[in-house]
Amino acid sequence: MELGGRRERQQRQQLRHRRQKRVTAISPLVKYSLFVFTFFFWLIAGALLGIGIYARVEKGQVNAVVDLLADPAIVLIVVGSLAWILGFFGCVGALRENICLLKTYCYVLLILFVLQLVGAILGFVFSDKVEEHIGNLVETAIEKYRDDIDLQNLIDWTQKEFQCCGGKDGFKDWHQHNRYFNCSEENLSRERCGVPYSCCRPEGEEVVINTMCGYDFAPDATPTEAIDRIYIRSCIFAVADWARENLFLLGGIAMGLAIPQLLGIVLSRLLVNQIMVEQGFQNGF
Questions:
Q1: What is the Cα–Cα distance from 102 to 282, expressed in whole angstroms?
Q2: Where does it mainly reside (predicted)?
Q3: What is the pLDDT of residue 64?
């Protein structure tokens, strides 16, 4: 009886020791901070994915634009899907203390952060190449202006907001790269030799937008002749000038994107180390 009671006390002590070890090894603050952080990240990613799918379905086009960089809906779907999967790994990994999911979340987040950092550095060093590439993207967007309603709204918003028109060659880009606005004799469109209404300068306090305000330009119209009716400034240069004037704002946005990523990396690494210590691994991460 005495021997049995001693064994029972030893078992209780061992069980109590394990419970104490479990409490001290894994910090609830780290675990649930990571869970809450990734849960909100997961919700935002799900919202982006839902908006992208809704926008894509609403178009109702069989032959809709499938160019990733020319269709905002596809961009939202791709980014939302990847972020949703990554958020799922972090959220479930933190809740279930799953080392595999947490390591995957940490490594992917670290890779994305490094790629963004390298991309920013290369973009600064090779700014001419970046400007050329952006110019090509703008030309592609102008070419597909009438093919995608989301892209059309994005271009119109940009031209009105930055008071600009076209890409590298200004309003002439619409005559060169869009089949509805080009000045060729084969083009029978009413929009021939014109530009979208978003290029037009507002006439006083107009209540009703004149969507035909950019029509009927001469094929050889010069910027001097067009300046009274439309914006002649290139949107690429307009956006670049805005960026130079708002460096502190862009820096704040960059920090706002970088800090959550670093926070996710640090929290997931700490939690993995604590879980491995809890399970008896001495080397940690």
A1: 18
A2: other
A3: 46
Q: Cβ-count burial of 13 within 10 angstroms (0-12 exposed, 13-18 middle, 19+ buried)?
A: exposed
**Type of residue found at 86:** L
> Any alpha helices (H) in 170-234, and if so which ranges?
172-177, 223-226
Q: What is the dihedral of CA 14, 15, 20, 21, to 10 degrees?
A: 70
C-alpha count within 13 angstroms, C-beta hemisphere, residue 10: 6
Residue 120 amino acid letter? A
Alpha carbons 140 and 68: distance in angstroms, whole number = 11
Q: How far apart are CA 124 and CA 107, in angstroms?
A: 26
Whole-number pLDDT of residue 72 = 77
C-alpha of 224 from chain center: 38
Whole-angstrom Cα distance, residue 87 to residue 142? 35
